[in-house]
Every structure is written in structure tokens, then in C-alpha cells.
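Comment thread on ticket #2218

A.B. wrote:
> Attaching the input chain for the structure job we discussed in standup.
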Amino acid sequence: MLTKWKIITALGLAAAGAVASGIAVLLQKLPPEEAAPAGEPQAKPKNLVTGSYSFISGFQDAATVEVCLDYDPEAFSFVVVEDEFLNYSSASHAAIVCGRDFNLQLEYAGYYNGEDFAAHKAALVEKYRTHGDFSCGGLAGIWVQDGDNILIHLPIPDDQHSYLLITVQKTPDYDDELTALPDYAPLKELLGTLHFFRH
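C.D. wrote:
> Ran it. Output below, let me know if you need it in another format.
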């Protein structure tokens, strides 16, 4: 009887060893993203869609500038509006992006006569007490705090007439300080997809 139990135990251990070996082999064959340990960054969503916002920039040498933004439609909504702006605007239309932690208003704005982005930035630094540099993707601009809003000013590549003004408003789900928004990774990741076309 003792011999019988020894045989059963040995068989059980052998089977358990085979299962463990099989699992180890399976894990080695899994793609890296499936076998990645918890806490590793996830792959970018594959269902990104592109929102487009365009406007006329310039006068005698006017051109249509198209601003494109890639976003996850499960996390954000995108619409171009002519009224019901998030924040007052003198632009004829603006793009509105709404998400869980923040909402954005993207609009074109013109430089003053003889101004460029460097002069515009210097004027903002002088006017607003709370400000800082902002970069995303290949763009480098400035952010300022204006009341309950963060205003991000970004130069438009190859455009001497207009810049992009982005109003950022936090939602009740965002539990950090307003001035932390410019460094908020989801915001920088979203704005890092900005790209421009001239027609």
C-alpha cells in the first residue's frame, strides 16, 4: 500500500512539474506587452482618431492653416464650434476637447503688427505673474495662469501671422493644483500629437 502511495505521489509531482514547465515555456513565447509586469506603461491606443481645426492666417499672403490633434475617442470628445466657447474668444470658431480631468479650447490668435513669438512671449512674461515654459512634441511655447484657466501659447511652424492659443480648464475629477496642469502627463501626451499643415 505504501508503495502504491509513493507511485501516486511521484506521478502527481511529475505532472505538476510538467504543468509548471509548460507555463514557463508559454510565458516565454508571449509577446512582450502581454508578459509585461504590472506597472509597466501600456502600449498607445490603436483606435486614435484625428480632430481637425483650420483657419485663415495672414492677409496678402494668406494661407489656410490646419491644426490636427490625435486623440482616443473613448477618453476625449472633439468638436469645432462657432459659439458656446469654454472661454471668451474673439476668434470666429474654436476646437473644443473634453476629457475626464481637463477640457481644452484651441483657437487661432494673431500677433500684433511687427510682433513675432519671441516678442509675444516677452509681453506675456511681463503681464502674468504665474507662468512657465511649455513644450510638447517638437513645439516650445509658454503657459500663463489667467484666473481659473491655464493659457498655453504655442508658435505655429512657418507662420509669421498667427499662433495657437490653448485654454486648459480642470474638471472636478482633477485633484491637483491648477498650476500643475502644464506638467500633467496626459495633457502633454495629448498635445504632443499636434501637427500643422498649410494649404
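A.B. wrote:
> Thanks. Noting for the ticket: Residues 1-42 have pLDDT under 50 and may be disordered.
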